[in-house]
Structure formats: C-alpha cells, structure tokens
Design goal:
The complex is a heterodimer of chains A (about 500) and B (about 475).
Chain A lengths: L7 H9 L5 H19 L2 E4 L1 H16 L11 E5 L26 H8 L3 E6 L33 H8 L5 E6 L5 H7 L2 E4 L19 E6 L2 H11 L29 E5 L9 H16 L3 E5 L4 H19 L18 H12 L2 H14 L5 H22 L4 E5 L15 H6 L5 H6 L3 E8 L5 E7 L5 H15 L1 H4 L10
Chain B lengths: L5 E12 L38 H13 L3 E2 L2 E2 L2 E4 L9 E4 L6 E9 L5 E13 L3 E4 L6 E4 L6 E7 L6 H17 L12 E11 L9 E6 L2 H20 L7 E6 L4 E4 L12 E2 L6 E2 L2 H9 L5 H12 L3 H9 L1 H14 L2 H18 L11 H12 L5 H13 L4 H8 L7 H14 L1 H8 L4 H13 L6 H12 L2
Parallel strand pairs in B: 12-13
Antiparallel strand pairs in B: 1-10, 1-11, 2-6, 3-16, 4-5, 4-15, 6-7, 7-10, 8-9, 11-12, 13-14
The chains are: A alpha/beta (about 500), B alpha+beta (about 475).
C-alpha cells in the first residue's frame, strides 16, 4: 500500500482498522520528500527527523489512550508565513531568512491541540505577493504536473506539496487568490474561507482586511476536516467572528438537487483560455445532470475588482511591512552610518522587487493628495462589490467561475511583467474584496494534461453550501482516479 | 511697536497616560519603570503576525474624560494608523484616531488673571498608544530601545487656539490635570511623563483677525517650563516680526537649561503620516446606555467640590479654588479635617506654608511626603497650646525632610512650648532686668517696647515660650 497516495480521511480509516500506524504515515512522507523534493522544491524548511520522533511519541500516547484526538499523528505542511514557535518563519524573504517566532499562530496552536505533526514550512511568493511562487527569495517551486511550469502562488509550495504527495494536506493563505489559483494549477482542492472564519493571529500580514488562512487538500472531504480543526473565533483576532460551531463534514451530502447555481457571464468572456472555458462548460452540464438549477447571471464588477484589490492590498501592505525595519529582528544592513541608512539599506537589500513595487504603490495611494482619488475610492468600490454580490446571492446559492483564466504557465514567462502577473488574479480577487468564501476544485485537464480549476463562490459563511456543491461534483467526475501529476519536464 | 501691542495665541495638545492596568492593545502591565523591555510581549514588540485587541477600559476612560470636559461622545468611532519610521515605534505606525475621535466639541472653564471666567474649547479627545523610549549613548555610541512604554494608552486632548497668555495656558493645564485626577483616569505625574503637552504658539497684533504662523513646542512636562517656554517663544516671535522677518511653521524643542527653544530634527523629511483606518481593529460602537452609565457614575468634579467647601466649611472661594485644583491636595485637606475638625487651620497650613515649600522646591502636591494624620496631629498640637505657630512652621519643614509623628518631632527637637507659669516668670524677670530702657520707654507710652520685650523673651527661649502668656506677664510686671 502506498500511504502517500491516500487522503487524510482514508488514512484515518486505515488507522482505525489498524492497517497502518502513525509512525508509518510520517515515515512514508519523509521517504517521499527525500525522493521528490529535489524535483519539486516545495519546502523552505523540512522537519522530517523531528516529525518521525514526534510521530513515535504520539503513537505511544494514542496506544495508551492518553491522546484521543481524531486526527492525532497526521502530518501537515505549513505555508511559511504562519508563525511557528522555535521553527523559522521566513515568508520566503531575505528579510526574515533567519527569523524564529517566539510564539505559535492560533492555527498552529489548534493543529498542536489535535496532535497534528508539522512536516515542514512551505515555499511561497515573498510575503505572499505573487501568483507563481517565482518571487520567493530562496527557490522556485515547480508544478508536479510539468516541472517547467509554475505551481501558481502565492501558496505554490503548499499546492505543489499536496499535488506531489509530499504532505497529505497543507495550510495556505489567500489574499487575492493565493490558495485557489495554485490549487487550480496543481490539480488539488483549495478553500478560501469567509473573512473572519479563521483567526489571522500569527499569520504574517500582507493585507489585513483580505488575508485568510485555508486548507489545500487532495479532496473536498479533507478540506472540510481541516476546516473543522482550524475554524472558530479567536479573542486575539477581533476581526474573527463569534459563530456557532459547524461540522463541515456533515455538510457533504452528495446532493445538489434544486441548488441554484449562477454563472456570471463576465468570467467567461475575453481572456479566458478556450480549453479552460470548454472544461468549465462541461462542469456546468454535469451540475445540470446532477439536478442543480443553473442559470447565466451578471456580475459586472469584475472589471473594477482587480484595480480595487491592488490599491487596498498594497496600501495595507505598505503599512504592515513597515515593521521590517532592521531594528528589532530580521535583516539589518552592514552598510550604514545613521538611522535613515539602517532603514533604507536594510529594506532595499532584503526586500525583493515585487515587494518593493507593492510597498511603493501602497505608499503612493495613501499619500496626502492621492488618498481620496485612490484609497478612499477603492473603499467605495469595495462597498459596491459587496452590494453587487449580495444582490446576486438573493437569487443563487452558489456562483461558478473558472479559478484562473489559464492553466499553469511556464516558469519565467510572466515574472518580468507585473501587470500580466496581476491578471492571473482576475477571477479570484473579488471574493477577498467582498470577504466571501470560495473553493477551487479540479474539473479536468487540458490537451497537455495540465489541470483546470473551477471556482465555487458562496455567501458569507456559506462554506457548507460550496463544500457540498464541490463534493457532489467531485464524486461524479472522480478527477483523482483519472488524472495524476506526471513530474514531466526536468530541472533547468 | 512694543511687546504690549501683541497678543499671544495658544492651543494645547495634552497627552495623558491612562491609568489602566494593562496596555491598550495587549495585556502587558502599564506600570512605570521596570528593567528595559520587561513589560513587553510579541504584540507590543510588533512581532510579525501579531494583532492588536482594544482594551475596553481605555474606551471607558476616554469617555469619562470626554464627559467630564463637556464633550459630545461619538457613537461611532474607529482606530487609524499613523505611519512613520522611528525606532521607538515598533510597528512603524502608531494606532491613533484620525477623523473620528471618541470625543468632540467640549470645553473647560478656567479663571483668567483678571478673575474673568473663560471657556477654553476642546476640539477633540482621542485614544492612541504611546511609543517606547530610546536610551541614547548609554553603552558606547549607540541607542537602545526600551519598549516598556510602547502601547501604554494615552488620550490626546486638543484645545482650540483659545489661550491668550502663559498664565492662562498654565491655568488651563492645571484645570485639565485636576479633572483627570478627579475622574481617576490618569495619575498625571508630569515628572514621569504621564502628562505632557505640546504647545502651539503664535503671536499677532492686538485686534488682528487672522492668526499668526504657529510654532509647536513638543513634550513639555512641567508647569514652570511651559510658562517659561511660552514667554520665551512669544518674545522670539515678536522680535522676528518686529525685525521684519517671518515666522516659520516648525516644531521646536524647549531646553530648560539654556532657557531657549531649538528647531527639532524632523522625524521624516516630509511629515505625511498616510493615515488610514486600521484593518486589524473593528469599529468602536457605543450605545446610549453605555455612555449614560458612565455619566451617572462620574465621581465628584472640582467645581462641585469647591461649592461644597464654601458651603460646608465656610472657606473663601479663593481658598476653595486653590484646594480643589489638585485632587491630592483636596483629599489631604478632607482627610486631615476629618481628624482635627479644624477646616480653616488645615486650609491655611496647606495653602500658605506648605504651598510655599512646594513652590520653592518645584514639587507637585502629590509629592508631599507626610500624611493627613501627621498634618492633623500638628494642628491639634497648636490648638492644644502644645506648640506655637512659630514652632509649627519648623515642624512643617521637618515633616518635609523627615516625615513622622509631629509629637515625636517636637519631643526630639525639644520644641515643646513653655507654658509653665514659673518658667515664664523667670524669663520675663530676666529680660526686664536686662532692658531697663525698655521699661522706661513703655512707661513713657511707647507700646513698641512691649513687643520688643516679648521678642527678646522668645529669642531667649528659642521660640518655645507661649506668646500669650509672655504678653500677659510682661503687662502685669510693667504695670506694677
């Protein structure tokens, strides 16, 4: 039996049946990392030896019934922008290359309470700014479906690691599409929860009003399981919401009869790759077959959403990244004679080009004289985007769109053109602006055997609905059974 | 033109540290002092990924301050980020309030030099966090950052440019300080920096309608230096204008030692703080009930305590004013009065000898080292005739140096009044023998001679003789 091929709920079943042991799981992943990581380059920090030791300890405690948590001993990969006590948290930046957090993020605490084992910290675009993971200061992660293409971003390490079966599941973060787009590129499931469902405490902030942590998994059920573990109000994050606990696994009914699905026509227009469009149309037909009521609708805010997103995200980032000043932690230049030079040279030397570009853009839109024209206006448009979604959701339970207009592109083809890179977020950013949940699931492959992602959008805290819609479709098309990453192409 | 042809125009921005137990956005203690960086946590040190959570007490205290200064309380308010780089500001932004402060449009009533009552308008009161401290050159050439103070809650109280003299500015600040002390939201210890003021000063020709260009003097933390700085700066500005120059809008630092202002280095070349709403914090919404509840539970304010002193103790308006200006002084008065039941004497001692010493030593009432019990005991000793007023003055001085039971002080120092008739008689006879001329003078009708003789007797007894008895006995002897 190849343990790394299994989903988490399958692992759990085998553990229950005593077909495998906790130690065997972590050992199998450690071996798989040894084998495939040189090709994929998904990790910034691997913790295989520590994980094996921890797995043994947990196994003993489970056997002695000292630990009863359901998913105790399952390993996980963590995007390297979530703080882990005693383990480096780099944000894939030279700025934090050697930074060790003195505390655990709330999501990490929750994983520890469940006795889930961290296998390592995963690569990403520097400070989560990018759509290809090429902006990591340390390495370029490769897409397991074709090693010459990008895994998407910014949670490219997380998506590639799940797709390559280097981890059974992973945590990513999504500010404008950073979970969903790499999930689509890598043929896995990625869920961006409603803003406020999951604590952001300990997630190194990119854009505070948009950032949200979420699962990247092999299938929909695993996403529901991981969401059960990490969701919930946190008194350390006042933007998280107090809500009654929901069991997301219970929401997976494998039934969409009567569900109203809207197809916003603006997401299927110009710029959408033909093969992507064709697969999405097949998916729409499949939903009809399954008994859903599918209708075309209009969401004419998509054009403004991208500009609004980049103004708000950059404005917040310019302020959030101010703390990386070379004074208390992180990189400090060797080259200074006064305070101003510490700031200037530390930041110039340690931030990458894309991060600098966004800090400058954000500083500009907040400057006096420009604030009203940019930031304030963007906030007004943000309100309109929310209202528009509210209107559409009066008629539909779920909206269906492509996750990305294209499949994964080749490494190096967009990284020098920021505008083209920003367009990769066109289908995903409006959800962050409106705070809505979205899930990306694979709906097929193109003629080059590259996966295509479908995005399902829900109402605020409508995770149960989109998880059920995704699950029902997944059960019908059985993507994982029919398509596998081939690790084709080679290291260049 | 002369100095008198100009009018000084001032507005104050007063920062008061709130006396909440914990910081504004984390649960670290606000206590003053402590080894560097011991009152800190990942949040107030701005470690990556941390988030602020607003301390509800801070909102409550700010609302209290607003209600006590006649402000309107905003039902909807929010926190904004003020962005700038400085090593004492770990997040590189200060969480403050920009366009929606928690309190607006208030006023504080003061009495100006000519006894006229004036309302000084408050533009706003907002909440914000304090920065850390830099310790310069302590070890070698560098500066060290201490973040104990980072995140201590502040309210900033901004006045309109309604103040017209240094004395008025002082009066306003004293009034504000006493209000904050009364409602117990700040300990207002200026020497520890928990109350400090930025003073905006401009001058204009009397009768002019437009304000002059203002200069801002930062972080003043004693009444004396505020008065000196305003006077210096106003004179400087008048001189510049008289010489045909122009006032530059600038930020100044007052140097107490040289007694002059210096232009301060800017924190950044251009001060564009790029304010925007802090996305980490939710809006502050206050209900009517919440505000009314705080209003109902406001403690007694200086104005009503003053009225009580006039009515209950029969003190003069002036004395009542002076006593109630400081909550500490006022509490000391009430506590001592309760023990010795001599309100007038307690008020007199506090406002004359004790205030004089405070002034000489540049101390604030809360630095008075002795207790209400000790003060009351001293007054009882006078009332019982155990010590004279002259001795009591010495006792007060001693209480400042080495506070303890006044009875012990007078015993140790041998200051007990001589009221023994035999002993007094002995002294009187001795003085009369030594001063035959005075006897003659008295008999010739010169009353001054009696005072001279009593004075001599006091000198002889080192002030310990009971003056009434001396008087009486000299008269008896002289009239024999």
């Amino acid at each position: 039996m190849d343990i790394t091929k299994l989903t988490v709920h399958e692992l759990k079943e085998k553990l229950n049946n005593k077909e495998i042991t906790i130690s065997e799981i972590t050992k199998a992943y450690a071996d798989r990392i040894k084998e495939k990581e040189p090709d994929v380059q998904a990790f910034i920090t691997t913790l295989c030896d520590e994980a094996i030791t921890e797995a043994k300890q947990i196994e003993d405690k489970v056997n002695n019934k000292e630990i009863e948590e359901e998913y105790a001993g399952i390993p996980i990969g963590i995007k390297d922008n979530m703080c882990t006590k005693g383990i480096k948290t780099t944000c894939a930046s030279k700025m934090l290359e050697n930074f060790v957090s003195p505390y655990d993020a709330t999501v990490i605490e929750k994983l520890k309470e469940e006795h889930i084992i961290t296998l390592g910290k995963l690569n990403m675009d520097e400070f989560a700014m990018g759509a290809s993971t090429e902006y990591s200061a340390f390495k370029k992660t490769r897409n397991p479906w074709n090693l010459n293409t990008v895994p998407g971003g910014s949670s490219g390490g997380s998506a590639a690691a799940v797709a390559a079966e280097l981890v059974p599941w992973a945590l990513g973060s999504d500010t404008g599409g950073s979970i969903r787009q790499p999930a689509a590129f890598c043929g896995v499931v990625g869920l961006k929860p409603t803003y406020g469902l999951i604590s952001r405490y300990g997630l190194v902030a990119f854009a505070s009003s948009l950032d949200q942590i979420g699962p990247i998994t092999k299938d929909v059920k695993d996403s529901a399981i991981l969401l059960n573990i990490i969701a919930g109000y946190d008194k350390k994050d006042t933007t998280s919401e107090k809500r009654e606990k929901v069991d997301y696994v219970q929401a997976l009914k494998n039934d969409v009869k009567g569900m109203k699905i809207g197809i916003p026509k603006e997401y299927f227009g110009e710029g959408i790759n033909k093969e992507v469009k064709a697969k999405l149309e097949e998916a729409i037909e499949k939903y009809k077959e399954l008994g859903a009521i599918v209708e075309e609708c209009s969401l004419d805010i998509a054009d403004y959403a991208l500009a609004t997103y980049y103004i708000i995200a950059c404005a917040e980032a310019s302020s959030n990244l101010g703390r990386f000043d070379g004074i208390r932690y992180g990189y400090r230049t060797q080259n200074y004679t006064n305070l101003k030079e510490i700031y200037k040279n530390s930041r110039s030397e340690a931030f990458g080009e894309e991060v600098k570009r966004r800090i400058i853009l954000g500083t500009y839109v907040l400057s006096s004289g420009y604030y009203d024209a940019y930031y304030k206006r963007a906030q007004q448009v943000r309100t309109l985007v929310r209202q528009k979604f509210d209107e559409v959701f009066e008629k539909y339970d779920v909206l269906l769109t492509p996750t990305s207009p294209t499949v994964a592109f080749e490494i190096g083809t967009k990284s020098s053109n920021p505008l083209e890179m920003y367009l990769a977020d066109i289908c995903t950013v409006s959800l962050n602006i409106a705070g809505l949940p979205g899930i990306s699931i694979p709906c097929g492959v193109d003629s080059n055997n590259m996966p295509i992602g479908m995005q399902l959008i829900g109402q605020r805290f409508g995770e149960e609905t989109i998880l059920n819609a995704a699950y029902t479709y997944e059960q019908a098309i059985k993507f994982r059974e029919n398509h596998k990453p081939e690790f084709k192409g080679g290291a260049c | 033109m002369a100095r008198e042809d100009y009018e000084i125009v001032m507005g104050l921005e007063v920062h008061a540290e709130l006396s909440t137990k914990t910081k504004i956005f984390c649960s670290c203690p606000t206590e003053f002092g402590g080894d560097p960086n011991t009152h800190t946590c990942p949040i107030c040190m701005a470690m990556p990924g941390t988030l602020p959570v607003l301390n509800e007490k801070v909102v409550e205290y700010a609302v209290k301050a607003g209600l006590a200064t006649n402000c309107e309380i905003s039902r909807n308010s929010k926190n904004d980020r003020k962005n700038y780089f400085y090593p004492d500001l770990p997040k590189s932004y200060q969480i403050s309030q920009f366009d929606k402060p928690i309190c607006e449009h208030g006023y504080v009533e003061i009495e100006s030099e000519n006894g006229e009552k004036r309302k000084i308008r408050l533009t706003r009161i907002h909440i914000e966090e304090d920065a850390g401290k830099l310790n310069h050159n302590e070890f070698g050439g560098g500066s060290l950052v201490d973040l104990n103070r980072a995140g201590v809650p502040l309210i900033e109280i901004v006045s309109e440019p309604d103040l017209r003299s240094a004395k008025e500015a002082e009066e306003y600040l004293r009034k504000l300080k006493s209000i904050l002390e009364y409602i117990e939201v700040s300990d207002c210890k200026m020497q520890e920096g928990s109350l400090r003021a930025d003073v905006n000063v401009s001058v204009r020709k009397k009768g002019a309608l437009e304000y002059g260009t203002r200069a801002e003097m930062k972080n003043m933390n004693s009444f004396r230096s505020i008065v000196r700085a305003i006077e210096y700066e106003a004179d400087r500005q008048i001189e510049v204008i008289e010489d045909g120059g122009k006032i530059e809008q600038e930020t100044l630092r007052w140097d107490d030692v040289s007694g002059r202002t210096f232009s301060m280095r800017d924190k950044e070349d251009a001060q564009d703080y790029r304010y925007f709403p802090d996305p980490d914090l939710v809006a502050i919404r206050l209900s009517e009930e919440y505000i009314e509840d705080i209003r109902k539970n406001l403690p007694e304010l200086p104005e009503s305590r003053k009225a009580r002193y006039i009515g209950e103790y029969g003190l003069s308006e002036k004395d009542s004013n002076l006593l109630t200006a400081s909550k500490y002084l006022s509490n000391l008065f009430e506590a001592a009065e309760t023990i010795c039941k001599n309100a007038k004497a307690v008020a007199n001692w506090l406002l004359s000898d004790i205030s004089k010493i405070l002034n000489e030593r540049e101390m604030e009432p809360d630095q008075i080292p002795f207790t209400a019990e000790q003060l009351a005991k001293m007054i009882s000793l006078i009332d019982k005739g155990t010590i004279s007023s002259a001795i009591a003055k010495k006792v007060v001085e001693e209480l400042f140096e080495n506070p303890k039971d006044p009875e012990e002080i007078i015993k140790e120092k041998g200051w007990i009044q001589i009221s023994d008739e035999g002993a007094i008689k002995e002294v009187v006879e001795k003085i009369l023998q030594a001063n035959p001329q005075s006897i003659a003078d008295f008999k010739a009708g010169k009353d001054k001679a009696l005072r001279f003789l009593v004075g001599q007797a006091m000198k002889e007894t080192k002030g310990k003789a009971n003056p009434q008895m001396l008087n009486k006995m000299f008269l008896e002897e002289l009239n024999k």
